[in-house]
Amino acid sequence: MADKIILEVARYSPERDAKPSFQSYEVPVYKEWVVLDALNYIKDQVDGSLTYRWSCRMGICGSCGMMVNGEPKLTCATFLSSYAHNGSKVRVEPLRYFPVVRDLVTELSDFLVKLTKVKPWLIRHDEPPLTQGEFLQTPDQLDRYKQFSMCINCTLCYAACPVVGLDPVFVGPAAIALAQRYNMDSRDQGTEERTAVLAHPEGIWGCTFVGECTRVCPKHVDPAGAIQQYKLKAALDWVKSFVMPGEHKSKDVRSEAAND
Amino acid sequence: MEASSHDVLLVGGGGAGLRAAIAAAEVNLKLSIAVVSKVYPMRSHTVSAEGGAAGVAKSDDSLDEHCYDTISGGDWLCDQDAVEAFVKEAPQELLQLERWGCPWSREPDGHIAVRAFGGMKKRRTWFAADKTGFHMLHTLFQTTLKYPPITRYDEWFVTKLLVDDGRVQGVVAIELMSGKIRAITAKAVILCTGGCGRVFPFTTNANIKNGDGMALAYRAGAPLKDMEFVQYHPTGLPFTGILITEAARAEGGYMLNKDGYRYLQDYNLGTPQPKPVLRSMELGPRDRLSQAFVKEDQKGRTIQTPYGPIVHLDLRHLGEKLINAKLPFVRELCQKYQNIDPVRELIPVRPVVHYMMGGVSTDIDGATPLAGLYAAGEVACVSINGANRLGSNSLPECLVFGARAGRAAAAYAATQQVPDGKVFAQANDERRRLETQFLFRTGGHERIATIREEMQKTVETSAGIYREHASLAKATHQLRELQRRFGDISLDDHSRTFNTELESALELGFMLDVAESIVQCALHRTESRGAHQRTDYPARDDNKFLAHSIVSRNFDGSSRVEYLPVKITRWAPGERVYGETSKEQSKSTPIRQAV
Amino acid sequence: MCAVKQPTTRTAPAYTEFHPRWYRPQVSVYWWLFQRQYLKFILRELSSVFVAAFVVITLLQLNALRNGPEAYARFQQWLQTPAAIALNVVSFCFVVFHAITWFNLAPSAMAVRLRGKPLPDFMVAAPNYAVWLVVSGAVAWLVLR
Question: What pTM did the predictor assign?
């Protein structure tokens, strides 16, 4: 294992630069150091102006996503030592396809707007009083959406998705997966409301199933799967609306819920 | 100066903050509510909680039993009226979260499942697999998105509370994205900024937990309470501070010193057996294990690493099959974040700071003695945790007292006028302070990281697992010196855009104040109780110290410590006993009959 | 309990009226060239062209058959030219690639559950491969017997 490694870090200051450039730093390599530790070392000891986000250092807060040698990664879960062979360099850049605010910090408010758009909350037509206890849900029913509920909003999937890069209005993998998380929840009654938002070219139909979102997801959420399943369901609903016109609209969701 | 105005303003967007925001919105949908957070709310540290949230749910359990477990666990320093309210409301709050979509783990019949937890005598801990805090936080965050009255100020860093006419009327905050320094006025402010684990060198706490809210309140004139009570967890990974759950020892893991010797046998914790024995050796109580580590270190029998002394947790003899079946998350954490495989390697561990029992002093509705200021969650001290918090009480605490503070602040805001122009002069002064002392200042000599590390070392040495007069008195001077050196700080970064170095400097300033309050409270409490262990005063002293430490700031910047009696309703103080005798003791405790 | 019946989606937060100058990276026209996974995706998409090519060849073959033995002989002659063989070999490779990639993606698109439990991925992909093998076998038997 090399004792030192060169970190090439993308730097961009909106007050000074027209576009990003790379700055190299030599950092020590220890077995337990991750890429984020190297950045912290630089910030504490060498250059306090290096700018990036981080918080929990245990892969759950979702702050520290960056491109490491061209791959979207959580830098708290990417060991430096795995790059420290043959004197190779590690290149750290802000997550791809996002506007860059400064250095490694990307702009996230657009993602938050998209997340809000898919109505990621439990939608009910009835609100029985709390005294009636919990909505029942069997472990099997929980299991149907559990995987899609594991998203930490780290946005690695956006940095992996070329559709996001080519078409900035695309709602994107994490947000659609979250919509599907609520659609699949046996307690939820809001699928129609969400589909009205998502069955559009900038929603589910924008996805070309590259599958990269699923590959890079650090929490194994499988957004690609969520979107394809959503497409299948939307397509079937559409066909049904031809076969049984009127049926779809007149269905009283309330009475269905009561029978649930 | 640009400004915006709201009715209720939350500082912090974690579990307590978001619950408070929803509670305030539900009081009156016409209220304007602001959540100001230095990170996007879903990054808040609530997200890291694993184990669960306690709330009486099953018929074999009772509210009184949860009260008793909490109060005895807290070494009788809990305010019992607060504990009773907490225990009563916790199940409703957890149920409300279910209604908002939280994916609680379930029984086969579809009802909520509960698990056992350390210190709880009945099964009452609700959980969402091993990511309870994550699911609670995301459920709360996603639910807030449907409330139009809630405006979020994401990545805004609050630097000061605006106080005029004896009441809090808003905050000054930096919008990190643009560097703009702005006043956000409000009729009521609720602090929900979490704890201050980063005051210590080794902690399970995230980088954002710097005691911001405690320092903001303290500087504004609201006192802090019980700051000497800091909870250690005996097995954290030394470098990352990641927690290795008690289950690793329950399955039969050994604690070894540098000679490979099961050292716990030297500390009155039983004799080593090949198989785990309840309440013995590795399964002794958390604080006793942490204390044994310190003694072992003093004997020079720990292993020195770049990250301080460590001992080893040995799981190798359990075998890959058992580790994969019973401890998969332990293996995953070790492999992914420490580059160690517990199947083949020893896990380096040491006690790590986990939770702050103390905080901003509040009443049962989250109100501080300073009008218009409220606090909830880890930043606050109501107090339900007393001298030692029980596992799985902190998540429901965020919900119960977040909701209470939200409702109380909304009611208070309805009686107040919109803050007038006087606070803007204060806000302008604050802007000038930030610019001249930090942003535009050149020629300082001290690096932030250096002062931070020295502060952490000072606090660890003096107010760590064991405390005594001499080192606490020394720390008082050292911290004063660090305060002075902090004035000579040098920043590399003078940019307005997303200046994280400025943020770190301001956080360090907060932490120095919090560190002082911890050391002062520890110095003045000349007894041992719960997490506060004085080697020079090893016994509990109910005559003098059945009382909360209240630390306030004097006009000259120094601090003073006073005492406020603990509120006792139904449970008279008893002995807190561990080890083999504990079963008989708890049976024969007379107070138990009085329940 | 919850009084909000009509959730409203807010657009951009009101406080971002001032922005610093963000750097907006441009996506290169050759974005798909520099990463193996992206290249694989583009090839998968491109494979549809060769699936279409096979269809066109089959249609031409049917057309030749309709126009009598002479035309069919001419068509068969064309099939033996190096260009036609090359086209067929390339098309065959792409169609195999097409089939394999889509079969492997099938489990992700279809969450099949049996008695409440999700089927493992290979159980969803396997029937596709099985049908493929059976049909190919049948065709081979028809052609080669």
Answer: 0.92
